[in-house]
Specification:
The protein is an alpha+beta fold and 116 residues long. The chain has two helices and five strands; from the N terminus they run E-E-E-H-H-E-E. Strand 1 and strand 2 form a beta hairpin. It is elongated, with a radius of gyration of 32 Å.
Length: 116
């Protein structure tokens, strides 16, 4: 740990972007001001630890929660094919296969007339 001495209104630089200034000294309390870019989170250590613990707790998923989620997401069709819920049989978002032959797969004949 680097230990520096500073008096009131003196500043410490961390890199090019972070300034720490001693704003006030009252008894055994030192007030500091921190200037840092918005991309750098600045917290008291106890707040940082609480945020970190909560994020770790939120990221943990129990296996029974995953099993329940998998059951809700799984749709099995009579032919055994699986798809996402709400798509019905097959994949409604599949891209149709196109032929290189003119008008194949359309309701129009080669001469432009509509087929029955």
């Amino acid at each position: 740990m680097l230990v520096l001495s500073r008096q009131r209104d003196e500043t410490i630089m961390i890199g090019d972007d972070v300034e720490i200034t001693v704003v006030d000294i009252r008894g055994d309390k030192v007030r500091i001001g921190i200037e840092a870019p918005a991309r750098i989170a600045v917290h008291r250590k106890e707040v940082y630890q609480a945020i970190r613990e909560e994020n770790e707790r939120a990221a943990r998923v129990e296996s029974d929660q995953l099993d329940g989620l998998a059951q809700r997401l799984r749709v099995i069709h009579p032919d055994g094919a699986k798809s996402a819920p709400g798509l019905g049989k097959g994949n409604a978002h599949a891209t149709p296969v196109r032929s290189n032959r003119p008008n194949e797969g359309t309701n129009t004949s080669a001469d432009g007339r509509r087929r029955a």
